[in-house]
Prior knowledge:
Protein name: SDR family oxidoreductase
Helix content: 40-55%
CATH class: Alpha Beta
Keywords: Oxidoreductase
Radius of gyration: 17 Å
Order of helices and strands: EHEHEHEHEHEHE
Pfam families: adh_short
Strand order of the largest sheet: 3-2-1-4-5-6-7
Shape: globular
CATH superfamily: NAD(P)-binding Rossmann-like Domain
GO molecular function, one term: oxidoreductase activity
Number of helices: 6
Organism: Bacillus salacetis
Amino acid sequence: MKTAVISGGGSGLGRELAKVYSNEGYHILLLGRTKEKLQSVKEEIAVDGSTASCITLDIACPEDVQKISKEINDKHDVQLLINNAGVGIFGPFLDMPFEEMDKMLSVNFSGTVYLTKALLPAMVEKDSGSILNIISTAGLRGKKHESYYAASKFALRGFAESLQKEFEETGIQIINAYMGGMNTPFWDESEHVQDPSRLRSPREVAEIIYEESKISAEIIIESK
């Protein structure tokens, strides 16, 4: 059975993408740092009549990613990798410690690179598969009080667009999605967005991404 691997699959957009793709014949393999959240999504997918499994993993740790990748490739036919995991910390540039920059770069950029490099070789061997990179409109333009966050997303955009060029003549599809803010727990510990309820729901964004990915390798979903 074809498998879709989703990083950051325990909540928000990752959770909704898992549910959307589970309805399209994929076994869903959820990756994330919190076992309870992953298990909850797995059970929701099972209730809907589809199958899922989960692995607790911090994608920012290259050794752990490499170790888990062997288990994934041995047990699953990975046809889709959704690089969704990400963190956002916001504030005036002069008030932001370097530790916050390191955290965002390690997850938003490096973690995506580690996971892609671990799972892409199996796709290359089959000359088939898709990688969907969830990036953010912060990867298209800088925004106030998002200097470190935007930098991490610009780095991810450069990586993802380069992959598009590198694999454009192969059977592997690289799709990059840039979406604005959503009404998710992403904002629970931040005052950067005063009223998240005015934003699109993660389900709405997941459905747009799914439909647009059928016809385009670049998806832009601006905030409402």
